[in-house]
Every structure is written in structure tokens, then in C-alpha cells.
Amino acid sequence: MKFQLIFLLLALTSTTFALDTEVKGFIALNTLSYEKVENRDPTMKMGIGTIDLKFYFNHEDFGAKIKLDLDGQLDEPNNLYEEAMLTWRPVRNWSFGMGKGKVRIHQMAFGVLESHYIDGGSLLGTKHSFRDQDRKIVGEVSYGGYRRGFRNTLNIFADARQPKVSRDDRNPVGYETTRSNPNEGQGEIVYETEKEIDTRRDVGVSNKFYFYPKRGAEFALGALVRDRDIDYNLNWAADFSGKYKTGDWEFVFEYTFAYVSNHPNDRYAVEHQYEQLGQLQMLYSLTEITTLQLNTEFALVNSQEFNKNNIPNNVGQQVFNRGQSAHTNNYKIDFGVIWKMAKRVNFKVGALYERKYEWKALPHLSYAHGYAGFTDAWALGSGVNFWF
């Protein structure tokens, strides 16, 4: 069925001109990279980093976008498409959208060898839980545009992946877990991708304001609040980002502060977690086809686990609910050269260095527990990006 859908979409865009349709895509290839992580054997990698395929359909004031998740878990129901949005633009500067898509609170400029921390781009792994806000059921209202000097986008959303409700009255968690015995309250909650969401169990609101003070300059301020019935506390985040291009130089920055709290039976359970993520990127055009790029990022996480002795009904998975507090800091810098081989093809080479600091303590101990200090990693690599 999934392959029939892909064939139908391709057929519509290639055999008829009555529809205003367009196909876009992106392929990122890791042609060769050498990676060395402290206390591990070095590795040499090559392969596909990212593959995206998007279909656009337009009719009068309406438009539709379907983005296939070709590098995701295609065997899971309702997971073939990462986005399926319908947009209506009845009057100038106004647009309304509904469907499955992305809450655009982040800017996320990619580095030379790795993607942004928010998108999982790390050799050492990060502790933060606030990731790219994609795969959401979204209702969106947007007003403004570049010519007006600003744009404001308001979203109401819920996550497409929801915990699977348990039908067993003996289960104290209320949701299915990975444990075979439903009444012990242990194990990790099982999630499934849904087409429709009960907003009484999960609802969020986000707003992002874009400001265009002059040509080549863009600044944005975003905020998000999410109320999930299963979580112990509200989750929220704020984001400030910007871009400025002058002559041959371009500067990109972003700072995100987030608070995360979930359920004791979640896979990475935390009672309180404060996260800071930042990025500063500089690009310089040497020639029309050659660009130098320097990218720096940090991810600072202060987390407090649940204490299994204080959780009602003795629920909770048995890995992270030790009452432990932890500080985990990641720092990353990469530099490279990007050559424009064709209008839509780039070849890049670069080097990356990352450092991670970990400190952990249990509340009933007067000394550091599990202190890992600093861990270092570096990489040399090359790749090809192709937009079509």
C-alpha cells in the first residue's frame, strides 16, 4: 500500500498538467568521514545522511504539502508521511493551515559535518530532550510577510505519537508498557503514531514572531507551552534567533531555553530538566562557488530524575528513577569549505571537534557519583548535498 501511494504521487506529477504540482527533494551523502571518540576505536563511515521527498499541490487559494519519511520507520502505521498539510490563503498576508507537520519554533542552521544539536547532530550524544518539533498534528494561523516587515505564526498542536492506553484495570500506569506483567507498574510506555489526537490528553500552543528590519536581516522570537495529561508538569520553551547577511559575510545565531518534565515510565524519564542550546555560525563567500563556514554550538542540561521511593503506586521504569541530579554540557565547533558544483549540488569538506562534560550525584550521598569528567571527540569528513 505504501509503495502504491508513492507511485500514485509520482504519476500525478509526471503524467498530467491539469494540476499545479511540484516535487522537491533533498539528499545528503556522507562520502567519507573519519571519527575518533575518546576511549573508543576510530571509525570510517560513508553512506546516506538524509533523504527527503516533498510533493506540493496548488489550486486557487489552496495548497497541500506531503513530505514522505523515507529514512524513518516505514513499518509503523501512519508513519510513512512526516508532513501532510493543507493551507488556505484567502486574502493577502493571511494563511491558515491544518494537518500533520512541524511547529516552526526553531531556526536550526546545519553545520558542515553534523546537523544542529536540536536535530541530533552529535558525536558524543547530548542529554537534552527538547528536539525538533516535527510530526505534530497542527492548526496554524499566520499573518504578515517580508514586505510588511514582520510575520506572526500561531500554532495549536499535539504530538502524533501518543502513549497506548491500557485496557487492563490492574495496570497502575494506565498505559501499555514493555513489561509483560501489567499490574507491576514497571517498564517503558509504548507509543504509537495516530492520525487523530484527543486534545484533552495532549495540547500545546506556540507562537513565533519574525521581524525584518532591513534587507538581509531577520530576527525571530518564539515560545511554546505544552500540556500533556500524562506528564507531571507543563513543558515550555523560548527561542531567539536571527540571520544577517552583508556583502560576502553571513551571520546566524540561535538560543533556546526549555523546561522538560515527563512521566516516570517514559524511556528517558525526568522530573525536572532545564536545557539551554545555543549556536553561532559564520559564512564567508570567497568566490561565487566557494564558501567558508564556521559553526559553534553548545547544549547545557541540568536534570533531576524521579525518585522511585516517592512515586505514587510504585510506578516507573527502573533505569532513570534513582533521584539522581546531573549536569551534562556539550560543546561543538566545526569548520569547512563548501564548493558549489552545480546550481543545486554542493560538495563539502570539514573538521569537527566536540567536548562533553558530565557530573552526576545522588541526593543521599555527600560525594559525586558517576563523575565522568570531560570526553573528547573529533572528525574529518566530506559530503555531497543535492536539492532537486
Folded structure, characterized:
There is one protein chain. The protein is built from one helix and 18 strands. The strands form two sheets. It has a 16-stranded antiparallel beta barrel. Strands 8-9 form a two-stranded antiparallel ribbon. Strand 4 (81-88) and strand 5 form a beta hairpin. It is mainly beta and 388 residues long. Helix content is 4%, strand content 54%. The chain starts with a helix and ends with a strand. The chain has one domain: Beta Barrel (Porin). It has one helix spanning 2-15, and strands at 20-37, 43-59, 62-68, 81-88, 94-101, 136-145, 150-159, 161-163, 191-193, 202-211, 217-228, 235-246, 249-260, 272-285, 290-304, 325-342, 345-361, 373-387. The model is unreliable at 1-9 and 11-17 (pLDDT under 50).
Overall tally of structural domains: 1
pLDDT average, as an integer? 89
With strands numbered from the N-terminus, the spatial order across the biggest sheet is 1-2-3-4-5-6-7-10-11-12-13-14-15-16-17-18
Low-confidence stretches: 1-9, 11-17
List the helices and strands and how they pair.
Blueprint: H1 2-15, E1 20-37, E2 43-59, E3 62-68, E4 81-88, E5 94-101, E6 136-145, E7 150-159, E8 161-163, E9 191-193, E10 202-211, E11 217-228, E12 235-246, E13 249-260, E14 272-285, E15 290-304, E16 325-342, E17 345-361, E18 373-387
Antiparallel strand pairs: 1-2, 1-18, 2-3, 3-4, 4-5, 5-6, 6-7, 7-10, 8-9, 10-11, 11-12, 12-13, 13-14, 14-15, 15-16, 16-17, 17-18
Gist of the model:
The protein is mainly β.
